[in-house]
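@channel sequence for tomorrow's demo:
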Amino acid sequence: MNEALYQHASQTIAVGSKSFAAASRLFDPQTRRSALMLYAWCRHCDDVVDGQEMGFAAQPLTPHDGEQALAELYRLTQRAYAGEPMTVPAFAAFQEVAVRHRIPQRYAFEHLQGFAMDVRERCYFTLDDTLEYCYHVAGVVGLMMARVMGVEDEATLDRACDLGLAFQLTNIARDIVEDAAIGRCYLPVQWLDEAGIAPEQLTATVHREALAGLARRLVEHAEPYYASAQAGIAALPLRSAWAIATARGVYREIGIKVRARGAQAWDQRVSTSKLDKLRLVTCAAGFALGSRNLSAPPRPEALWQRPR
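structure tokens (generated this afternoon):
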């Protein structure tokens, strides 16, 4: 095994996402290695397109530069699947994961399509449009993570995708103002019209109360996806169930805090404290153990369905 790659991936998640870093420690060593390697690739692709480092100081590329960056990401991803030597650490890490866990190439390309939606400044008119974006940037990551944990059946993959959708809806709610500052808006245009907010006015403090209402709607729409994901945890190995239940709890807590803060949700970045994480890790352990005897109810038909 390449220890340098693992150290690179560990540093990437430690800086890029404290929430996921905390949950990843609960995996068994082999699953943790693969999860971190996968995260390193996802983080790298996101950073390249957003002109940032480890998720910070975003400076979106020009459309021309963005398209060039995208083309390079597609090229390197294809080379990784072709078994060619990878010199970029994030792609060497992804190659290891993709080969070991037989991650379908279409999953990787579908993830890159989410970054293409950013580069091409896609407009999201309806909630379904927003959910399509959520699928590409997060839902399909759930599918890849599920493969890392040994999942292959479609029903459990649906639940993994649902968790990714819930995570991204929470992200959007938390980052509305931050995204708007760099010209990005993932809220449905229909919702903005109903609230009387123009996309270019999202950062204006005068709209914070109305914005809080839209964030609350996003958080509420995430709930059935969090519930669906929870129902799929029983299908995972115990250590993986503990890690995923923890990640679910930590991210859901962020949404709860966004909703509770109302118009003050964007005064400072919402996060979970160490005490929050400790509580959620403990609760997740109890749920993971109890889930061994649970069978999942049918997935609600009203939920957005991933492409097959």
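heads up for whoever presents: The two ends are 33 Å apart (CA to CA).
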